[in-house]
């Protein structure tokens, strides 16, 4: 079945550091890919998405490119801020059948120190 | 923000008691979902609904039932709560199954 693998966490960075969070997936067909973010005490929010190979999703300085050849969707940001401290989830949406469903990775906690 | 509320936001209950969690939306989205979030597991789908009275099982449906009698409400019931059901429960909605899901604020459930 479909699966999403995220790098192990937690991750702690200093403000203005470069961020990469790895995400790889296994899926039949051509799924859509998502990054969701969960700030402390809140529900998940969509950060960015990509629906086909080579698409780049971007939002709030974050970027991720749908790489079909490496089945990856790594999240990057050039300069993190303390306000980026959150849990980040990679997810895919299978397109099989009438009702697609999201499959999530385990999430990774990012802490950014001043 | 999508109009999604969950109630209660926090609940403590005892093993063996029934528990019902409510998800309410004001967006008129067709699809509604219940997930649980546990450390080391990410989010796992419990049940989902693709219309009034239309529901289906997710990855971890054992011990849970759902009902959707109107578009705006999706109820999750634990018939006889167990300690393994201690978790944070999230509701989500989407217009179609292939579009972005929007999440509620979550319900923190502790089963003693």
Question: Could you walk me through the main structural features you see in this protein, from its secondary elements to its overall organization?
Answer:
The complex is a heterodimer of chains A (114) and B (112). In chain A, 0% of the residues lie in helices and 50% in strands. Chain A has 114 residues and is mainly beta. Chain B has no helices and eleven strands. Chain B is mostly beta strands and 112 residues long. In chain B, strand 7 (64-70) and strand 8 (73-78) form a beta hairpin. Chain B has strands spanning 4-7, 10-13, 19-25, 31-38, 42-51, 54-57, 64-70, 73-78, 87-94, 102-103, 107-111. Chain A binds chain B through residues 32, 34, 36, 42-46, 49, 89, 93, 95, 98-102, 104-107, and chain B through 4, 31, 40-45, 48, 50, 56, 58, 90, 92, 97-98, 100-106.
List the defining traits of the structure above.
A: 114 residues, mainly beta, six-stranded mixed sheet, four-stranded antiparallel sheet, B: 112 residues, seven-stranded mixed sheet, 0% helix, globular
The proportion of residues in beta strands of chain A is: over 45%
Radius of gyration of chain B: 13 Å
SSE topology string of chain A: EEEEEEEEEEEE
Q: Biggest sheet of chain A, in brief?
A: 6 strands, mixed
Between the first and last Cα atoms of chain B, what is the distance in angstroms?
34 Å
> Looking at the chains present, what oligomeric state does this protein adopt?
heterodimer
Extract low-pLDDT stretches of chain B.
none
Average pLDDT rating of chain B: 94
The structure class of chain A reads mainly beta
């Amino acid at each position: 079945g479909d699966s999403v693998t995220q790098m192990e966490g937690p991750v702690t960075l200093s403000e203005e550091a470069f961020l990469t969070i790895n995400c790889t997936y296994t899926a039949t067909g051509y799924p859509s890919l998502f990054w969701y973010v969960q700030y402390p005490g809140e529900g998940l929010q969509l950060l960015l998405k990509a629906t086909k190979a080579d698409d780049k999703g971007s939002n709030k300085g974050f970027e991720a490119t749908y790489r079909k050849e490496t089945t990856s969707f790594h999240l990057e940001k050039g300069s993190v801020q303390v306000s980026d401290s959150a849990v980040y989830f990679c997810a895919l949406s299978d397109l099989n059948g009438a009702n697609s469903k999201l499959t999530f990775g385990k999430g990774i906690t990012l802490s950014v120190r001043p | 923000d999508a109009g999604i509320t969950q109630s209660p936001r926090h609940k403590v209950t005892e093993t063996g008691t029934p528990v019902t969690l409510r998800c309410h939306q004001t967006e008129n989205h067709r699809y509604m979902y219940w997930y649980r979030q546990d450390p080391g597991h990410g989010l796992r789908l419990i049940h989902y609904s693709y219309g009034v009275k239309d529901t289906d099982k997710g990855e971890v449906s054992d011990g849970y039932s759902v009902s959707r009698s109107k578009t705006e409400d999706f109820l999750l019931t634990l018939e006889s709560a167990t300690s393994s059901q201690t978790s944070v429960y999230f509701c989500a909605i989407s217009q179609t199954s292939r579009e972005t899901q929007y999440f509620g604020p979550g319900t923190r459930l502790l089963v003693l």
